[in-house]
Amino acid sequence: MTNRREERRKVAIEKQIDENLKRVYEQDVTQKIPDKFLELLDKLREQE
After folding, report:
1. Interatomic CA distance for residues 31 and 29, integer angstroms
2. Whole-angstrom Cα distance, residue 28 to residue 6?
3. Largest interatomic CA distance in the chain
4. What is the pTM (predicted TM-score) of this model?
5. FRET pair for 46, CA 20 to 30 Å: which of 8, 10, 15, 28?
6. Closest by alpha carbon to 5, among 13, 40, 42?
């Protein structure tokens, strides 16, 4: 019975990690690109 409990606990922890990673990724994707980064990209394009 202890093995089943440990396995359920492991699965629950992995699920929580997955959910947290998804949450962080979604927040990152919705953030606006900083102006300084866009300016740097423009400068790099001009050099090409």
Report:
1. 6
2. 33
3. 66
4. 0.53
5. 28
6. 13
